[in-house]
Every structure is written in C-alpha cells, then in structure tokens.
Amino acid sequence: xxxxSHAAPAPPQGGEEHSVHEGQVPPWHGPxxxxxxxxxxxxxxxxxxxxxxxxxxxxxxxMDAEVGLPGQIAKPWARMRxxxxxxxxxxxxxxxxxxxxxxxxxxxxxxxxxxxxxYAFAIAAAPIITGTRLWGAMLFLWPPSHPSDLAPHELEAIxxxxxxxGALLRETVGEDRPLHRTGEPRIVTPMALxxxxxxxxSAVCDYLDRLRVGCLAMDLECRITFVSAAAADxxxxxxxxxxxxxxxxxxxxxxxxxxxxxxxxxxxxxxMTSYVARGPDGSIMKFRLYPDPAGISLRIxxxxxxxxxxDGLPGQALLSRAEVSYGFxxxxxxxxxxxxxxxxxDLVADHVMPVxxxxxxxxxxxxGRRMRIVGSRGYPHDVIERFEGMPVSTCLPAEDVARTGExxxxxxxxxxxxxxxxxxxxxxxxxxxxxxxxVYDEVIGACVLAFGESxxxxxxxxxxxxxxxxxxxxxxxxxxxYDTKDRLAHSLQKALLPRSLPEIPGLEVAAWYVxxxxxxxxxxxxxxxxxxxxxxxxxxIGDVQGHNMTAAALMGQVRTAIHANAVAGASPGDVLxxxxxxxxxxxxxxxxxxxxxxxxxxxxxxxxxxxxHPPPLLRPPNMPAEIIxxxxxxxxxxxxxxxxxxxxxxxxxxxxxxxYTDGLVETPGTDLDRAIAALAGNFTRDFQDLGExxxxxxxxxxxxxxxxxxxxxxxxxxxxKSSG
Length: 724
Prior knowledge:
Blueprint: H1 31-44, E1 48-53, E2 60-67, H2 71-74, E3 79-81, H3 87-94, E4 98-100, H4 103-109, H5 111-116, E5 122-130, E6 133-142, H6 152-173, E7 186-187, H7 202-210, E8 214-219, E9 224-227, H8 229-234, H9 239-242, H10 247-250, H11 257-269, E10 273-278, E11 284-292, E12 295-303, H12 313-327, H13 329-337, H14 341-356, E13 358-367, E14 370-377, H15 381-387, E15 390-391, H16 397-404, E16 408-410, H17 413-419, E17 431-439, E18 442-451, H18 459-496, E19 507-514, E20 524-533, E21 536-544, H19 549-567, H20 572-585, E22 592-600, E23 605-611, E24 617-619, E25 626-627, E26 647-650, E27 656-660, H21 672-683, H22 690-699, E28 711-718
Parallel strand pairs: 2-7
Antiparallel strand pairs: 1-2, 1-6, 2-3, 4-5, 5-6, 8-9, 8-12, 10-11, 11-12, 13-14, 13-18, 14-15, 16-17, 17-18, 19-28, 20-21, 21-22, 22-23, 23-26, 24-25, 24-27, 27-28
C-alpha cells in the first residue's frame, strides 16, 4: 500500500470537474493507482517503477508516484521536459517503448542521464496512451545483469501496466478534461517489501553479536531499521539510539558525497557496492552494501592498518569515479551554453583532458563523405593535416566509429595495431579512445582522446567517455545549426540594406553596419540615402525594436515606405507621419525609431525630423561638432495621430553630418547624454577621410568584449565650394 498524507477522494460524479488544482488531491490517487504500480513491479520483476503524468499545457513530465526509489534520489528526476534527452521523455515524444539494456547504451543514447546517474541498470520507458491522448509515461528499472532483450512476460507486464494506468486516468479525469500537475511524488511501498516492525528473534541477535563484523539495515531513505551490538560499537553509539534515525544523523562522519553515491548505486543498480572510510578516532572501516527493493543491509568490518585496503586504494578508485561524475556537471552546463565550435573544443579540452590525463584531443565532423577536423588540442599540426579530409570509408578507427556509431578503446599500440594492421603510428601516443558523436541516432562525427602512456579503460571510464561524447555531439550540432542560422539571418539583414549609395555631386558619403556579437540575434538597424534631385537627397537611419527575423522583415517595410514617401516630395515630418500610419495598419507589436534628414546642397540646409531616435551630430567647418536638438517625435507604430515636427539648420560647404543608431553610444549603466557628448568629441578630431573617421567612431564605442546591439553609422560631407 502507499503511504499517503491524505485519504483518497470519493469517485467523481458525472458532470463534475475532474482536473486537479494546487493543494487538491488528484482524483486518480488511491488504492487502484497504487495497485497498478505494485502489480507492475511484481509482474515485470523491475525493482524500481515510476509513474509520470503530463500536465495540461506543460511540455513537462511530472513524477506522480514510484516504487523502490528513495525520495532523495527521486527529487532530481521529478520533472522531465518532453524535449529533454531521457528515456521517459523519448517514449512520450515518440509514443513507443524505449529499451536501454545497459549503462554503455544509456551513455550513447542519453548522455546527460548517464552522467547524472552514473550507475549500472537496465531501463525501459513506455507511454501511457488512451485513444489519441498522451497521459504520461512509466519507467521500469532492472539490475544490470538483466538480459539484453526484454522477455515476452516483461513486455506484457509493461503494456498491461500502461493500459491499466491509462484506463484509470481516463475514468477519473475524463477523456477531454485537463490533467493538472500533482504535488510531491508519492512513495508506494508494497506490503511484501515492507520492513517488518517486529524485533528479530533473540537467537538471531546472539548470532550477529558473536560476529566480529557489524550488521546494520536501512530502509530506502537510509533510516536505520536494525543494528547489531558490534555495529553500534563501530559507530560509537548505543543501539537503542540508532534505530529509526537516518544514518547520516547517527554517524555524521558518513555524510560524505562518496558514501551517498555508493548508497545510490546500490539502490539503483541492485548490486553490492563497497566503501572505505576513516572514523573520527582514526580507525579504518570497510562498508559492504547489499541492496534489495526494500532497503540496504550494511556489513561493517574494521580494517587492519597493515591491510593494503588501509592505503585507501579502493576508496581512491571510488574517489576518482565520483570526482569524474561531479566534476563534469559544470562542463555539461557550459556545453549547453556554448554557441560556437571553438568554444566547445576549448571546454572539452580544459575539462576532460586534465581529469583523465589525456595528452591530445581532436574533434571531427562528417561533412559529405569525409571527416573534417573542427578543433584539436595537443596534436602537432602535421598530424592534423595528415588526417584532415579522410574519407569515411577509410579503414581507420575514427572513420569506423563514424560509420558504426560504436566507440573504440585501445589500451596500447599493440591493441590498435592488432585490429588495424595497416595503421601507421603517426601521433606517437600510447592509448586512444575513439568516441562517436551521435545526435538522435545519427553519427555527426567523432572525438579522439589520446594518452601518453598505456591506459586500460575501465567499464566506468568507457561509459563516462561515451556519455561525454553524447553531450559534445549535441552541443556541436547545436553550434553548427546556430552558425548556419546566424549566417542566413545576417545575410538577410545585409540583403535588406542598400548595396550601394547613390552618387550626388558635392556630397561625400560613407556608411557602416556592424552586427551584434553572436548569440544576440539579428537586429533591425538600417540606413539609406535617397536621391531626390541632382542637388538634394534624403538621409535616413533607424532601428526596429527586437533581434529576430520579424525585426529584420519590418525593417525592410519601413525602408520601403520611407523611400516611397520621400521621392514623392513629402517633408521629413510628413514622411515619418505616413510611415507611422503604415506601421499602425500592419498591426505590428514592434516599434521603430527613425531619423530622416533632407540635405539640400543648393540651399545649403538640412531639414530633420525624428521618431525617438538619437540626435544627429553636425560639425561645421573649422568648428567643434555639435548635437542637433531635433524636436522629439514618438516612436513609429505607437500612436496613429503622432506628429513629427521638422527642424531646419544650415549645412555649409565643408560641414560634416553623422547619423547613427544607439548601438554606437548605449550600453547598460552608461549615461546616454554623456555617451553622445563623448561621440561628438570624437567626431571633432582631425581625419584624412571619412573612412578613417568612421572607423575611429566605431572603435570608441562604449563596448568591451561583446556587443549587445548592432551599429549603423552614416556620414555625409558637403564638399561644394562656397559661392560668393
């Protein structure tokens, strides 16, 4: 039976709302649901069974109840995004059974899960479906000794459990009613697996007390259910004070991540594990952990200081394994944020090579039918050149891995030469791990780790390497896709900008567009110069809100509208007014800043109107640059009745005009007025031509390593000689 904190609800009546809200008991909770889980565990033989529900409107699987999994271990797996790389999510997405017979296969197909749960087990996941509705999923775990295939009776047990749970959900919730999230996962404990509450017979106690080893039993939550006198002595406590208390509370010196890892490994894998620890008095003890679905039995024995175990060799091997598991969590987080291939190469080299003492590394991707090296560390340039562009059909380890998707490990050169007799020892390394980079069962490349000394790879190392390769593969695939998307986006943006500016006698013009740093997205900055007559033009610069394809597309519409109204002879204020109404009509949620200036070389004047854009800079001949205070108008797309006043100022021969977007002056924490004043100061400096001046202005933009916004800059110089 389950251990609920509340009574099961009455069966729902017809016409009632069957969904569950915050604080309410889900209608499917009760003896029937518990019986489904207990029966599933009993008939399948799985020592852990988990039931996930899919809440309405949330792409997340939420753990509802489980059998055989301690609460502390269950918490990290209580929520699984449907898009995540986990067996439960994959079964729900694909609506089919997912079977993973061992940790090596888990590392290859679900690397994030393999790293987060580095224990040996076999796992099956199946969706819960009635009709066309997906309710959730169920998980089943067996010890790693399970055969490589599911037996017919196990398949039947899985199918029946999902059918029964689906029928229960449909009956209690309703086929068309929403299913909302539940609270904390419920722990369902079958009576057959309960630890008896009666005291053991005195004869058994006498037998255990005569042994020189300590005996201790815990439930799945690590609460002590029995302790022998010898174990109490070794833990330096009275037996009566230990029963019912968590082990970490009874012996705080055992609250160690390595020991906790051994306990989790025993519960999840259902295999004996061991741990060596030094007590508070300096004595060394060895713990052997024997699990079953109800809990863990510990055998505690003192270790003689002359025993080789006292040197900590088993503990040291365990420490290496735990350090690997925990040490790679920052790498997994960093890889999830990496946006380019060089960054991924550096992350892998900096995190993986030192941990395993690898001397060299290379990451390759399959391009066409050839292997292209996208990054390396530790290999000489001539070795990289020799293997660059090798056909995938070549009979070499990396190429075999790319073809088959199976990792290869060679402890020394003799092992490699035995399998590849025609291989040449170019890199002078002594051991190698060739790892497939696999994304959703498609091999996109290979990763090679090379070692300076012979290295017999343990089973755990092989699984860890394979899981890491999976994380690298997903990051590499994302980076390459992002790079392609980024290039296409910026190609679109540049295509929407004018390829060239018209030539107008007496007017020298130069323009710059500098995209934001990778990862920010495509911007909506634009500029243009529109020829009106032989002696006049309209200079325009603007910035559409946002960094996406919508902003870029809207930028093209704004440019077109301004161009059409400007060549029709409308004043700058009227051009902005008409463009504003167009944006209101297209009902966009994006706003646009814009500055439009009519330049008349014959009249030597500028007429300017602005829609919330940074002010232009004017540098009269032989004078400091000044800020033109154009009357402010609202951003385009805000108010259909907005007005845009026009300001006229002189533009004599020899004068310079600068139009720019806020990416040139604005950064978080910077005072905008001061930044514009500083830009005006740089605009005053001497220069040889507009190219040198523009480059100087962009170089002095208030940015450090990364640019959060695009920069557009348009410079105009009046070169007509003064008349009279």
